[in-house]
Amino acid sequence: MTLDALIDTLPTYAKDLKLNYSSLVRNNTELTPQQLWGTVVASAIATRSAALTAAVLQAAPAQLSPQALEAAQAAAAIMGMNNVFYRFHHLAANEKYSTMPARLRMNGLRGHGVEEVDFELWSLAVSAINACGKCVGAHEKVVREKGASEELVLATVRVASVIHAIGAVLDAVHAQAAITAPEPALA
């Protein structure tokens, strides 16, 4: 199913998500196309919604270069790992953990081949979805140091929040369908 068709299947209670998707993704004026679609890809992966991720990955090649698509996927992968690790730092009472080396490979943070600000925005979006305050703070600081405005940061997080909510609703619709589906007949 195409992404637009999938969005059109959202239930009535998610009308605001449809409207926000339309204004933030279909008619976006705040982000470059690469920033926007990299955010959509990384955010969809972070939602863990199979239906949404599949539709986004089907639509993305028409919007992103192969290198940018791979970089957005790398941002989602690395931040999926880092967000758990650094969120633990934040939540653990023992401050010694913050002084110890991570010993996790993070090569994807470099050599991704896209604008540094774009990759950092995608990392920020995933970190916001995964609620890692330490990573949100670090990536927001980097994009601001590289000249991004607060408006650009907020536009990115706004897109991530809508994509995340769409993924949650699609999963709820899938769960509801499983509950209401008739039991298969036994042979």
TrEMBL record:
Keywords: Antioxidant, Disulfide bond, Oxidoreductase, Peroxidase, Redox-active center. One of its GO terms (biological process) is cell redox homeostasis. The keyword Chaperone does not apply. Its EC number is 1.11.1.28. Disulfide bonds join C132-C135. InterPro entries: AhpD (IPR004674), AhpD-like (IPR029032), AhpD_core (IPR004675), CMD-like (IPR003779). The keyword Disulfide bond applies. GO terms for molecular function: disulfide oxidoreductase activity; hydroperoxide reductase activity; peroxiredoxin activity. It comes from the Bacteria. Pfam families: CMD. Residues 100-175 form the Carboxymuconolactone decarboxylase-like domain. It catalyses: N(6)-[(R)-dihydrolipoyl]-L-lysyl-[lipoyl-carrier protein] + a hydroperoxide = N(6)-[(R)-lipoyl]-L-lysyl-[lipoyl-carrier protein] + an alcohol + H2O. Transmembrane segments: none annotated. The active site is at C132 (proton donor), C135 (cysteine sulfenic acid (-soh) intermediate). Belongs to the AhpD family. PANTHER family: ALKYL HYDROPEROXIDE REDUCTASE AHPD. Antioxidant protein with alkyl hydroperoxidase activity. Required for the reduction of the AhpC active site cysteine residues and for the regeneration of the AhpC enzyme activity. This is Alkyl hydroperoxide reductase AhpD. The lineage of its organism: Bacteria, Pseudomonadati, Acidobacteriota, Terriglobia, Terriglobales.
